[in-house]
Specification:
It is built from 10 helices and 7 strands. By secondary structure, it is of the alpha/beta class. It has one domain: 3-Layer(aba) Sandwich (Rossmann fold), CATH 3.40.50.720.
Length: 260
Amino acid sequence: MKRGEGHIAITGASAGIGHAIARAFARTPNKLTLVARRRAPMEDLAREATASGVPASVIEADMADLEQAVAWVDEAESQHGPIDVLVLNAGIQKVGPALSFSVEETEAMFRINVQAPIRLARKVAPAMIARGAGNIVIIASMSGITYTPQMADYSASKAAVSAFFETFAVELKGTGVHVLTVYPGPVATDMEKRARENLEEGFLTRAIPTGTPEELASLVQTALLKETPRLVYPKVYGAARFARVTSQWLTYRFAPRART
């Protein structure tokens, strides 16, 4: 990604990591499309961005509805032109024993965490390839590398989506389209807070390194400029990619149980 004006579209932009990424790009000479179910937080940010000279639009879309998940792209591009950077951040996390969730809850998670971002990539990537330029960012999770007890469905969804986009990145080499796969560990957001509240207090919940969405957003921008293929945050979790067996054993051994 080169510095300069472009169209940045971000899903899940109403809170957490997505909101922090949107706020970071709102301080650069770009055009923004903010996409999520909740309009109010995005409208506040869009007003701030527009007031500082960065055109920003808000589109409501529910990623659990796979038609809505891609329908917003045409509206966004009619307002701000072709999407130059697509940030696929929207996702949900459920914490608890695997058998505590219904089939419907699991299928909704896979629609949001896996099917929606893949459909969006397939919607946007062909035009990027035709232009010979573009960036796709997928917010995966360390849970997709080191599977986490009490998050079986979430880990499975993040493993699936990271496998797709890591492979997609290889297939797109030489086209001018860059794919960045982001692996956050714990990041201090409302979603992370809710996850902790559903787990018993234990070694991992007390001592595990936790980052901030603002620092991650800044690192995402840097990774795009450098066209690095993946980003692990906080950095300490990078060792888990190269020592997966040990990392998995430690996680299974010390992971807290769900609160009852």
